Amino acid sequence: MDNLSGEFRQALRSLVRTPQASLIVISTLALGLAATTVVFSVFDAVWLVPLPLRDSERLVIIAEEGGVDASGRMSAKGFHTLRADRGVPAEIAAAVSKQVVLQTQAGLELTPAASVTQNFFNVLGIEAMLGRTFASHDAASAGLGAMVVSEELWRTRLGGDRETVGKTIRLGSESYTLLGVLPAGMPRLVAGARLWTLAEGPLPALRVPGGRSLDSLAALEAAGVANSLRYLHVVGRLDDEFSFSEAAAAANSWSLRTWSGAQRRLSVVPLRRHLTGAGLPGVLQALAAAGFLLLVTCASVANVLLARAVARRREIELRVLLGASQGRILRQVFVESWLLAMAGGVLGLVGCYWAVGLAGRNLPPNLPRLADLAINSRVVAFTLSVAFTTGTLVAATLALGVAHVCGLRTARAALREASGPAPGRRDRSERGGHWIVLAQVALAVMLACGAALVARSVTNLLRIEPGFAGDNLVVVRGAQGGMAWTQAEIAEAERRLERVPGVVSVATGTDVPPEGVAPPLPVKVQGTADGPAVIAGWHVVSPTYFRTVGIPLLKGRSCTSTDLPNSPAVAVVSQEGVRRLALGEQPLGRRIGLVVSSGADPWWVEVVGVVADARFTDVRQAPGPEIFYCAGQNPRTQQAFVIRSTTDPNGLLGDIRGAIVSALPHRPIRAVQAVKDLVAAQQATLRVSAGLFGIFAGIAILLAALSLYGVVAVAVARRRHELAIRVALGATRANLAWLAVVPVVWITALGLVLGALATLGLQRYLRTLLFGVAGLNATMFAEVSFVFLVVAVLASLPAALHAARTQAAVSLREP
């Protein structure tokens, strides 16, 4: 113990004697470790923090896959059959997303909610913080008037008063008894629900174009869609004696028995993967990029410490000559590296407390479980472990050179090595430094190539034509389903909106790009052979919709005020819809039908117009086939106002909201948003990834530049006698400068080749971040190469100029 304590004291004194090198190493390590720790803290929040559910590893999400619907949900018939057959060894429960109008003292508020089966919370393993959840006697009485709320809604909208449990709460025109409050931090499994009611069946009312309402299992079966409309979110808790793989096998067997011959199967996915699956690949890619940056940091630190070791070479050789053992010298190397690494780790953690808060404010809001982002004990342990490992790797690299010095057995050998290498030759430590810098440059090239790929993806995303004019456009979203506005309410709201200064056009529809919410439904063409229906998005729009949204009309006409329920049913089709439905060169007058049941007649309409394609559901997705029905023939379906202005829409949001509230005082408003903000939100993930890769690549290039400068500076310092001799023999300044730059050119060129080859092998792991980019091409590699060559020249320039100014008489007199 005394020996170890002495080693630490001696190592600390040694580091204090060279404060500049020590501070550079600590700062560099802190930078690399902080970047890695921030990304790991996001990974920890997304994947490692346990779900606040009992035995959460046994929870699964069950869905129907295949066929025409890829919603990740189940049909009512499928759910009831699965539960009756025990097709999966699990207790299963279901939920249906909806929206309710919550009446509080502050007024009406549209609240995301869900209807759930009685056993929903029991399956999830959630117990109420206050009161209770649903019980069997609630189901026996059809659960009328019973609800459970989240802690956040209870605290912010119900006053956080314990006495509210058991009292009556108004949801629209109905009264409900508040049974309980769930604990804070519960995952929102169903479309961000903050309130839960007990469902009958569970089958809330579903509306489809044509005015039909399907509100029970019997109604769905009568319509023939009980097995085709998938709208149930199904969760299951595996039986204790079954593993996940056994449950998946059972689900596959049940699928084959139940849907033999159909293109449909049952999928079973762990709940954690379901909650985090969308964001995890991007986080893992960022973590890998941070790992590469950390390796670049290690190489940079190793270079600095190697230069420091070279400067202390005579000290080490003297200690060897005085009898110091190789083990003691190597122990000091490791202790010094560990001290520097742990100091860098602590400093990196300090920076992380600020960086994590910054990351939480700038990460895409759709990244799951951001509320759990924090510097916890697991993150601290990770950082210190990585710091210790980094110190060990750096020390092991240095130990190779130190061991070479320690292996000099005679004073003559030591003095011969101390006199420096022969002209034209490099000693072992210099060659080792070059290999370290080569690895550093190759890693930096990989990060730069990754940043170039993601940056090109962002450029492609910004250049795409969305198919609509999103600038100066505002969308006002109201309630969904049966709470949509009446024609009289729409007319009054339009009159008030048109009086808002700057508003030039107003329209209504079921939804608005780029966040279309209408589910795709099967569509067939009259007079064609029976075959698979085309899945198309359906929308109900007012006569001014296309002009307001900015979707060009290519053929025919749009909806008009004469398209009423008693007039022939008509529709407008997108270009992609014309192509997918094979309507040909003359689509006008063709009849298409919305298929709500394989056994029932389609709802036939006549095509009266064709509009340009628009990216309705996401600007990152190619346009799909879209069918637009007329609002006059489909009353009570509009759920959104679209307002076009002549000025910045963000400055009009307050006036627009005020106009809507004054026109519809008893109708809750879900959101008032500028469409350009919706587009920016969909681009946020790619923008953040590009920014992150760009920052990492910039840091890596900077560290590589410093190391390249070190290569030239060390080479010039060691070869000053050789350079002086060359001057005496007639070498020009250009010759001397080129001699100093040659190692950098070779290292950079080889690093570019190795980095590009590694990028080509690893770029497939970046494909989830790429948009419109197949992979690294010659143009991008040329751009990255140009940047690195410029950096290499600039990094080597000071030392090269110093070499060019070598004076033979002065240098030869130096020891």
Overview of this structure, please?
The protein is α+β, with helices and mostly antiparallel strands. The chain folds into 3 domains: 2-44 and 281-461 and 681-813, no CATH class; 67-263, no CATH class; 479-669, no CATH class. Helix content is 49%, strand content 17%. The chain is built from 24 helices and 24 strands. It starts with a helix and ends with a helix. Mean pLDDT is 81; it is low at 408-415 and 417-425.
Task: Tell me the overall shape.
Answer: elongated
Radius of gyration: 34 Å
Overall tally of structural domains: 3
Q: How many separate helices?
A: 24
Share of helix, binned: 40-55%
Largest sheet: 6 strands, mixed, barrel
Strand content: 15-25%
How far apart the termini lie comes to 42 Å
Provide tags for this entry.
815 residues, alpha+beta, 3 domains
Task: Please write out the topology.
Blueprint: H1 2-17, H2 19-48, E1 59-65, E2 74-75, H3 76-85, E3 90-104, E4 107-116, H4 120-124, E5 130-131, H5 136-140, E6 146-149, H6 151-156, E7 168-171, E8 174-181, E9 195-198, E10 206-208, E11 212-214, H7 217-223, E12 230-238, H8 244-258, E13 265-270, H9 271-276, H10 280-311, H11 313-321, H12 326-362, H13 377-406, H14 411-418, H15 428-463, E14 473-477, H16 487-498, E15 503-509, E16 521-525, E17 534-541, H17 545-549, E18 553-556, E19 570-574, H18 575-580, E20 591-594, E21 603-611, E22 626-630, E23 640-645, H19 653-663, E24 671-674, H20 675-718, H21 720-728, H22 733-762, H23 778-804, H24 808-813
